[in-house]
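Standup, Tuesday
Yesterday: got the pipeline producing structure tokens again.
Today: sanity-check two examples.
Blockers: none.

Example 1:
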Amino acid sequence: MYDADGALLLKFTARAHGHRDGDPAEDWPDYGDGDVGLTELASNGDTPTGLSDIDLNTPETNATLYGPYMVNRVVGGRVGNAKLMLAQPVGIRSGILMHTGNWSDWDEDEDMPNSAGCIHVHPDDCKAVQDALLSIGVIARDNPFASNNYPYEPQGLISIDLEP
């Protein structure tokens, strides 16, 4: 994570791998390391690649699913598949967040589970991102609980690349 001047603020690990084909509720948390999973173009697949706008929002109400910290909401794509999938005001995909969770059967020493397109980070990293953003003057917007017709001017950019 970099500030507006390109200075490194924080390094952390994230997981942007979508659920495997099938019902993700059958086996949660879903690590799916041995499968391809659903693509970034699927409704609940990998996080769309490319450059997108992102904004800091107050926490989601369900701390079990999203963790107790602020979330970073991907609110619109600018370049690449993100532009196609996350167009505003209403994109093909929506609700993509960078967040953590308090999932049952998951231990903080394990890798993050797969998501429905969100970017999962460990709880300590989620708090560190929140604190770093606040320390450089990023405003925590009141959570609108949606990215379609997002009511605020996004304060940041996120670039997602697919690793081979």
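Example 2:
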Amino acid sequence: MHIPDGFLSPPVFTSAWVMALAGLSLALKKTRQTLRDRMIPLMGVMAAFIFAAQMLNFPVLGGTSGHLLGGVLAAVTLGPFAGLIVISLVLIVQCLVFQDGGITALGANMVNMGIAATLISYYIYAALKKSVFQNNVLAAVFLSAWASIILASGLCALELSLSGASPLGVVFPAMLFVHVFIGLGEAVITVMVIRFIIKVRPDLIYSGA
């Protein structure tokens, strides 16, 4: 999911950088408007937790593995815009310090795992909770966390295809097939963490206020 340098063409990674910076700028503006004192340490704790959790892989199929992305987890606890900031910071540190994903591709990784898997997936969660699941938070978290991985991997496949790295008919089904199962791991872990938070500190769940 973390695209390295050399896989995206200049037009694709430049466009992705523009979208990533625009999304991050909007997130900073929105978060400043709603930021509360208690959110500052919570954002730090959530960033540290997601960063550490992403270091732990779980096995999937055929010897492949996945790890927690944490977009929906961050958004459900902090709100969609603060969640986007947290995931973006995690991706930046991973890129610059651990070389997990390339610098030129960082914008694309922020679009895929920040804007799509965090911001957009939060609104999927909110819509599911309100309509389909009738305020069943955990059911909405499960499906939106799974969807966040599908969205991110689908965008990654599209970017690789537009860059000429692989035909869309090859890379898209290949990416989605394995990430369907990685998404299940993401969903289970996210539900477990949210369930624990609801049990001990339900006030930490973002209310939309």
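Quick observation on example 2: The chain has one domain: 10-56+67-204. The helical segments are 10-34, 39-54, 71-78, 80-98, 106-130, 137-162, 168-200.
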